Amino acid sequence: MARNAEKAMTALARFRQAQLEEGKVKERRPFLASECNELPKAEKWRRQIISEISKKVAQIQNAGLGEFKIRDLNDEINKLLREKGHWEVRIKELGGPDYARVGPRMLDHEGKAVPGNRGYKYFGAARDLPGVRELFEKEPAPAMRKSRAELMKEVDAEYYGYRDEDDGVLLPLEAQYEKQAVQEAVLKWRKEKESRLSGDKQPEEEEEESIYNAHKEEPEEEESQEEMEGEEGGVSFMAHVPVPSQKEVEEALVRRKKMELLQRYASETLQAQSQTARTLLGV
Fold first, then answer.
1. Which of 102, 110, 162, 269 has its CA 20 to 30 A from that of 56?
2. Torsion angle (degrees, nearest 10) of CA 19, 21, 23, 25
3. For residue 38, what are the CA distances in angstroms to 13, 94, 281?
């Protein structure tokens, strides 16, 4: 009995030893990169992920795998790429190199991303799958026209020409032209002065017509029928339609008011009698 118990204990010890040795050989990669606190191990897991990505990228080049297998492989590659990024961040936190900046990007260049798809990439035969090919063949959207508000943001002092003198080219040209104009004006003044002293008469220059003088057009008889006549330069106007006086206007308003009151309060018989009386009187 004691012999059997000793054999069982020996077998259990061997089994545990074998488990420990197997664990040392096949150590599982942590699910989260933050669980690893050793830089060498983090480097090891990153290399392992790169190896897995390379194998899957080689497999996905085979278009005969079938649509579903290719889609699954493409999803796994994108998942491993994200995991690789997590390990590179962890390596940088542990004091290692920044692989996101200095590391090779050969694996990333193998894939092609669709704009607006949040970095999801298609590798190998996945780019030729139904529905994916159309995404890459789709023409880019035309550039949006700028609104009036966006255009007004670009309007500044330079747009209106207030900074034309800042380049140092315009001011020297203006100074040169101004100097030339002054010299010509001085020479003209000297010639006129010498001619006046010598007694020569200069031809009188034609007086320029002022643009502010209003030209009075002659009234047309057919259109206006207005007579511009009067004593001592006065002006009188004659209209085609006779204008009623103030008294005539008041009498017409009174008659209209009487008719409105009569139509409102009088009966039909009274209105008929009133109308007959006005007819007889000639009102």
1. 102
2. -150
3. 30, 7, 128
182: part of which helix (H) or strand (E)? helix 170-198
**Rounded alpha-carbon distances, angstroms, from residue 5 to 2, 10, 19:** 5, 9, 21
Distance CA 142, CA 260 (A): 71
Question: 71, 95, 98, 69: which is closest to 85 by C-alpha?
Answer: 98
Radius of gyration of the chain (CA): 53
pLDDT digits (tens, 9 = 90+) for 171-221: 888 889 999 999 999 999 999 988 888 875 555 555 555 555 545 454 444
Amino acid at 140: P
Q: Which two tokens stand for residue 235?
A: 């002006």
| Dist CA 7 CA 86 (whole Å) | 48
DSSP per-residue letters across 77-113: HHHHHHHHHHHHHHHHHTT---HHHHS--HHHHHSEE
Q: Phi and psi for 204 in degrees, rounded to 5?
A: -65, 135
As a whole number of angstroms, the longest Cα–Cα distance in the chain is 160
Tell me: the pLDDT tens digits for 155-169? 888 788 777 777 778
Q: In this predicted structure, what is the pLDDT of residue 272?
A: 76
The whole-number pLDDT of residue 180 equals 93
Handedness of CA 258, 260, 265, 267 (dihedral sign): positive
pLDDT tens readout for residues 243-259? 778 888 889 899 888 88
Task: Give the mean pLDDT of the chain.
Answer: 75
Q: What are phi and psi of 229, to 5 degrees?
A: -135, 160
Instruction: Please report the pLDDT score of residue 73 as a whole number.
Output: 92
Strand partners, 121: 113
Strand partners, 122: 112
